[in-house]
Amino acid sequence: YDGHSDLHVGITNSKGVVYNYDQEGVHRAGSGWEQCISIPLVQPDMWELLQHWDSLLEEFSLEEAWLPHRYEEQQHNCYTFALAFVNRVRQGRGREPLSKARFTESFLIPHTREASRYLTLHQQLAHRDLYIVPLAEQEQE
Questions:
Q1: Which of 9, 88, 113, 120 could be joined to 78 by an S-S link, Cβ 3.0–4.6 Å?
Q2: Using a CB cutoff of 8 Å and minimum separation of 24, what contacts does 112-117 make?
């Protein structure tokens, strides 16, 4: 990622299938997201939510709001789909919905900053004559 194009956003089910929305409607992709940034939305101790996650996501994705003709590049897009699902789950747990700004600040920016630092370091190392050697076990301790 070069930082100059839009990112595409999706939500995964428990089997790693990514639900994502675009001008053709909702897609379910089992591959093609290998170069993504994964942002955990559910804490591991929320087992009751995890039990229903897949059915909640499937039901949500079938709603009329996510039909292809509803897509609008700036206002009703993949980001809207992801945020609306997160807010649906939050509402079901009695929590306040997140605004786009708050969702971006809390979930996306910290992870994209970290990925950006990693990618920048990787690009710098790739363009230099460097060789990284793992330390011997006794040196690591």
A1: 9
A2: 112/7, 112/37, 115/1, 115/37, 116/3
Tokens representing residue 54 in the block: 């897949």
* Structural domain includes residue 4: no
What are the pLDDT digits (tens) for 62-71? 999 999 999 9
Non-local CB neighbours of 99 within 8 Å, separated by 6+ positions: none
Q: Is residue 132 part of a domain?
A: no
pTM of the complete model:
0.78
The span from the CA of 141 to the CA of 137, in Å, is: 7
Of 96, 101, 61, the closest CA to residue 78 belongs to 61
In a domain, 90, yes or no: yes
Is there a contact between 107 and 89 (Cβ–Cβ < 8 Å)? no
Integer angstrom CA distances of residue 109 from 35, 58, 87: 17, 27, 18
The verdict on residue 133 lying in a domain is no
The total domain count for the chain is 1
Domain span including residue 66: 10-127
